[in-house]
Amino acid sequence: MSLFRTELRRLSKRRFTRYMTLLGLLVLAAVVVGVFFTNQKIDAGQLARAERQADQQYQEQVRWSEQERVACEQAKTAGTATDGRYPDDCSMITAPSRDQIEAKWFLPSTFDFKETFDETLIPFAAILALVGFVIGASFVGAEWSTGGMMNLLLWRPKRLTVLLTKLAALLTGILAVTLPAAVLWFAGFWAVANFRGSTEKMTSGVWQSFMLTGVRGVVLVLVLTTIGFALASLGRHTAMALGGVVAVMVVGQFGLGILLSMASVRFAEAWLLPTYALAWMTKTVTLQDWNSCNATYYGECKPATMDITWQQSSVLLSVGVVVILGAALWAMRRRDIS
Amino acid sequence: MPAVLEIEGLRKTYKSRRRGTRNALDGFDMRVDAGQVHGFLGPNGSGKTTTLRTLLGLIRPDGGRMALLGHEVPDALPTVAGQVGAIVESPQFFPHFTARDTLLLLAGAGEVPAVRVDEVLELVGLRDRSGERVKTYSLGMKQRLAVASALLKNPQLLILDEPANGLDPGGIREMRTLMRTLAESGMTVVLSSHILGEIQLICDSVTIISLGRRVAFGPVDEVLAQHSSGAVRIRLEAVSDLPVATEALTEAGIRVTGHPDHLMLAGVDKPASVTRLLAEKNLYVSELAPIAVDLESVFLELTATAPVPGQHRQVDESMKVGGTGQPGPAGGGWGA
Question: Is the ipTM of this complex over 0.85?
Fold first, then answer.
């Protein structure tokens, strides 16, 4: 049996791997089931009822604005409209137009595959990335802390080969879980859309977009798995990776976020890692600076914006993997094992 | 006999900003010939485990030369690793795997046939408990598992660090028999242990290390002979004659220590000269017993680690070759 197959076997035999994988898959299943039960298929009767409710709402708005306009004029005549309750010109009090009150507001939640499935790939990737990170950290961290790595190196003295083979086995294992899970995720939400929503307007372009988002999700899972593995190998303990990520998130992200907010830094989210993870999945995240005003031809005040793109995220993820994995490999090669 | 393990001038220095520089290995030499059971002895912190770890590629040396089975290491470790079985320090295994799984995974990594797992489990007496998780094992059982893992490769050279640690008396005897059987089958065994009685019983030769340097090496009998102090215990027919005997022996240049019912003599080359001397004074010996030196006393003398009443010896307070407390000029294999 080769070292790679042995490591794959070691990974699958570990109880932590099995329990974490099961937990992750159960959470994903719970999401699908939850979406199934909180959505409904819309029939013609529900649509008609929603239209009636929209009409009713419109009529109420018309009545209310008419009452307010009359009250405004009476207050102006009596000279009591001084509390700022009414505008200077009472004719400005008008009801919204009918088309501004949409019937869909009165419909129960329904799952539109074309509109919504893309968003579900974000929690899918996030949950499996977390599972991959923890399993990756534990897989090599436990080996270091229980002396398993030392035992293995007595059999296979090529340190880098051992570490990289372990990583390859880990990524293969994670991929073996992620890919079928992704297929089931697509199938699950397709079923949800069929029974509790709509699968209309699906074109090859939409499918292609979903597939690309799915691929980016899988890459994110593999990247975070590698980072968890590398951090634990660097610290030679699982706690190094878990402690490191807690420190980064609590101090480096929440703390930094608060600090940037207090300092009124423009586009503070551009300094936070989750923004880049989100941009990686959604292709673009547009940040807005509400303290600025870009006037339009129509006199509107638009906030300044900044786009974080998936290409920028890919650079950050690549640099992160290269630096952390590189440090782990360097430490593996140079540091004594005692 | 060809050497299966050779170390020359091995150096390893640890540097720390707070604690300064410490030479864990300070020009250490060692040689083990094929087919021997070789004892590797030294006080705590003397450099035994550092030597073994360095030899096995776990620690990077700062200088010196090492060879295993005729190949220079660490460069040739990938070549010889399959022929060297080793356990270093306490046995460490993943606690949630069974002993069988642990060995199967190691066998897989080393591309050893799985059937060998059953053979070594039988050999170390774990056959019937091999399906239990390692975390349920006693220290002695873990030790057996560690030995099994080292034997898995059917190595030419077996390096065991404290293999008897945690074993029950029966287990120690089994381990002793196993070591001898393995040596008879042509395997070379290097045994690091603090149970010096065991070493004396099992080993053909020994190396004693103190503060990173070799202080003694050679066949066990030669090492003991080199440190035989010529001590003799005598008793006389009449206890009342002991003061007269003390005077006569002292005049003859023999160091005498008196006891209520016997005398202890030191520096006696030939016990017969004592009986002759006392007989000439009409003092008749009822018992004359040369005191045999054992490995423990030699070890304590060489490493200067014998306990002194009222003193608490610290870990690094032991003998260093060329340092204070250096034993007198050594002949034969001493300190060479």
Answer: no
